[in-house]
Amino acid sequence: MFPAPRQRWVDALASPEADIRAIKHETLIIHGRDDKVIPLNNSLTLHHWISRSQLHVFGQCGHWAQIEHNRRFNQLVSDFLTES
What we know:
two-stranded parallel ribbon; 5 helices; single chain; 84 residues; Rossmann fold; alpha+beta
């Protein structure tokens, strides 16, 4: 995702695929469609790997969905936590 040497530090923080696939809890994944830092495909992969996940993609949104769409983001998270 990042040019060397930064990627190695990201890799050190990453969870193995098997651990992610083993998540059994309801999971909310939020992504900005226009994110230039983390590709949308990463969230699509997580959504595919986590069987009880929901994915919400904000249009006209970059990397900071919680700032760029703060009211809608907060409502989405609040609703998720209330329902879970």
